[in-house]
Design a protein that fits this description.
By secondary structure, the chain is of the alpha/beta class. It is 39% helix and 18% strand. A six-stranded mixed sheet has the order 2-1-3-4-6-5, sandwiched between helices. Strand 3, helix 5 and strand 4 form a beta-alpha-beta unit.
């Protein structure tokens, strides 16, 4: 991603409604859908500026790596830990390590070799380990946001399952999320395209609106493992 995108992520991920809500949905997916041992070993592949590290470290013994030097430095400052350089698919640090849980959160769409990356991460799982990932949904939602973030693709359940199977992995569970706000975001993107507006999708709204959007989005954590939504702006999957 461009450096300004990492800078925005660093500024926003502690309190922007999307980052806050996604963390809670990821945590709910891990705790509800994945059987972990008592003290699980966890890896976050592509930790960015570190917004998920505190949440993941509360669940087990955490390792992480990051490709971008500046993002990695900010993640180290936030987490007070040293983090190695790493890149998918062929530069994953720690050759002898195997993990009970690997997290890949809005990273796969940035990697051209998605099948090879999934295969490389799958090879780092313990026999009962799981890979949990999130990706943006639906190619028809492609926008300037995707170009600015250097995405190669967006996914559907079918295309993500196809990539996982090609990597030798099985999709145990998959579900769309950010569903309640789906109509609003689709309408906003349509208006931007109509009027040729190029404002970033991740602008921070005012405090009241940010709290409202966060409350709506966070509510979806209660649906994880119970009511599968038929659509959403994002897709989560658990692989083994």
């Amino acid at each position: 991603m461009d450096r300004d995108v990492y800078a925005r992520m660093d500024q926003l991920e502690a309190h922007h409604w999307w980052f806050v809500g996604r963390r809670e949905i990821i945590r709910a997916a891990i705790t509800k859908l994945i059987p972990l041992p008592q003290e699980p070993s966890i890896l976050e592949a592509g930790c960015g500026t570190g917004g998920n590290l505190a949440m993941l470290s509360s669940l087990g013994d955490l390792d992480a790596f990051e490709f971008d030097d500046i993002a990695r430095k900010r993640a180290e400052e936030k987490s007070n830990r040293s983090l190695p350089f790493g890149a998918l698919p062929d530069r994953i640090p720690g050759d002898d390590s195997a993990y009970d849980l690997i997290g890949l959160f809005d990273v796969l769409e940035h990697v051209e070799a998605d099948e090879a990356s999934l295969a490389a991460l799958g090879a780092r799982l313990t026999p009962e380990g799981r890979l949990i990932l999130t990706v943006p949904a639906y190619g028809w939602l492609w926008s300037k946001h995707d170009e600015r973030h250097h995405h190669f693709r967006r996914y559907t359940k079918a295309s993500l399952t196809e990539a996982a199977q090609a990597a030798g992995l099985k999709v145990e569970r998959s579900f769309y999320f950010n569903s309640f706000l789906f109509p609003v975001v689709v309408a906003i993107r349509a208006l931007k395209a109509l009027f040729r507006r190029d404002t970033p999708d991740d602008d921070l709204p005012g405090p009241v609106m940010n709290r409202l959007l966060s409350r709506v989005f966070r509510t979806e954590r209660h649906l994880v493992g119970t009511i599968p939504m038929p659509f959403g702006l994002s897709l989560c999957a658990v692989l083994r």
